[in-house]
Amino acid sequence: MAMELDMALDKLKSTGVRMTPQRYAILSFLLQSMTHPTADEIYRALADRFPSMSVATVYNNLKVFIEAGLVRELTYGDDSSRFDADMSEHYHAICEHCGTIADFEFPPLTEIEVAAATHTGFQVHGHRMEVYGICSACAKRVSH
Known about the structure:
The strands form 2 sheets. A 3-stranded mixed beta sheet has the order 4-3-5, with no helix packed on it. A two-stranded antiparallel ribbon has the order 1-2. The chain is α+β, with helices and mostly antiparallel strands. It is globular.
């Protein structure tokens, strides 16, 4: 985690983004979090330490991190966006009951991009793939 945070801070510095205590707290929270939190969840987790911080402040800082290539915004369905600081190539499994998002690794599906480009003539810039189901915690609750 410490190395990831150092690399992220270096990247921000190189793009001219000033590091404030709030930005540092938001970024380190995201790097530690495995839950793909919403802006509201990040705000609630940090509100005690930063009484003057608002949800809008969190959201604006997340936008800065997205533009710097440190965070990705996950928009699934109509729910609030969730944020992921893991920029490695990975995919998501999403629970249809509680909205939990779990990461999983799989060899990148680059052949899909090649096929899409070949069949459509598009210049393909990327893809997103997610699987949907019921997480184990929800499955246990449903079976009882």
